[in-house]
Amino acid sequence: MENINSVSPAEINNEADRQHIKTENLVANLQKNSKAKPKFYKFITSIYFKMILTLILLLLTFSLSVIIAYQKEVRNKPKPTNFSECVLSKGSIIKESYPKVCITKDGDQFIESLPKEDRSLLESEIKLREVKASTESATVKQGCKVGGCNNEICMSELDKEVVSICIYKPEYECYKKAICEKQANGKCGWTQTGALRACFENSASKDLSAQ
User: Fold this and answer.
1) Is there a single domain that holds both residue 202 and residue 139?
2) Which residues are listed as membrane-spanning (predicted)?
């Protein structure tokens, strides 16, 4: 059969022959191109692509397993039930009071256990302060209460008892004649009367002279 590529336009006598030759050339080119596979197809069918895909799937599976295990550990981790466990618990806050108070990140509070002798001394001191407070105490209005180791904190009667540092300061005597009531902001606090401010100034001057 004569090669159609060697036929020159001069040898073609009519338009039908030219169209026939073009059609045969087009079919021949399509058949040739169909035999050549694209580079992308070769890549996705190669062993390297399969290895990379397997590695990615393994990494995803491992990461998911770690996340699930961590979430289970967090959910199943027991909450602190005493002061020692609270201290070791992540996110807890230790108040430097006497005795110390540990507050968990969930808001639970635990008081440090004291030796028997220290506990007895503390109880005796508290009773002595209660006796003194009964004879001379602050004026407390409705909705508020006085707390703290030295009765120096004015708070809402709905608040939990606050444990403060049991260190005596001269200005604490001023609160015995002060007024604990709701202030302009709606919260309980000490009313800053002229007498209370004067008492604070006198206490500060006595403290400086003692130094």
Assistant:
1) yes
2) 47-70
At which of 57, 75, 93 does a domain end?
A: 75
Structural domain harbouring 32: 4-75
CA 131, chain centre distance (Å): 44
Task: Please tell me the number of Cα atoms within 13 Å of 98 on its side-chain side.
Answer: 14
Of the candidates 158, 162, 163, the one whose C-alpha atom is nearest the C-alpha of residue 143 is 158
Q: Do 58 and 143 share a domain, yes or no? A: no
Output the DSSP codes for 4-36: GGG--GGG--SHHHHHHHHHHHHHHHHHHHHTS
Are 203 and 137 contained in the same domain?
yes
Contact criterion met (CB below 8 Å) for 177 and 138: yes
Asked if 160 and 89 sit in the same domain, the reply is no
Q: Using one digit for the tens of pLDDT, what is the confidence trace for 133-175?
A: 544 567 888 899 988 888 888 999 888 777 677 777 888 889 8
Report the largest interatomic distance among the alpha carbons of the chain, rounded to a whole angstrom.
135
- Its pTM stands at 0.36
Instruction: Looking at the structure, tell me whether residues 122 and 138 fall in a common domain.
Output: yes
- Residue 171 near residue 204, CB atoms below 8 Å: yes
